[in-house]
Amino acid sequence: MKQSEIINLSTAELQAKLGELKKSYADLRIAHAISPIQNPLQIRSMRRAVARLATELSKRELQ
Predict the structure, then answer these.
(1) Which of 1, 33, 49, 63 is most exposed by smallest CB count within 10 Å?
(2) Does pLDDT of 39 surpass 90?
(3) Does some domain include residue 4?
(4) Alpha carbons 4 and 36: distance in angstroms, whole number
(5) What is the dihedral of CA 21, 23, 24, 29, to 10 degrees?
(6) Coarse DSSP helix, strand, coil percentages of the chain, rounded to the nearest 5 percent
């Protein structure tokens, strides 16, 4: 997700998307541990997307 897309989401949507991405990230890591996945860079991009969403949520809580 792009940062501009993340900013336009509501807080509830951010929380839902964050939970969804965290589950996908965990599944991807488990799949990679069992047998190497086709594109291991997916793990990095997924982790960064989770971090972007978490950062936006914490930023909104501070405001």
Answers:
(1) 63
(2) yes
(3) no
(4) 32
(5) 120
(6) 85, 0, 15
Instruction: Give the total number of structural domains in the chain.
Output: 1
Q: Which two tokens stand for residue 9?
A: 């989401």
Any domain includes 3:
no
Distance CA 33, CA 41 (A): 14
Contact (Cβ atoms closer than 8 angstroms) between residue 50 and residue 18: yes
Does residue 7 lie in a domain region? no
Range of the domain at 57: 12-62
For residue 53, with 0-12 CB atoms within 10 Å meaning exposed, 13-18 middle and 19 or more buried, which class applies?
buried
Please give the model's pTM, rounded to 2 decimal places: 0.89
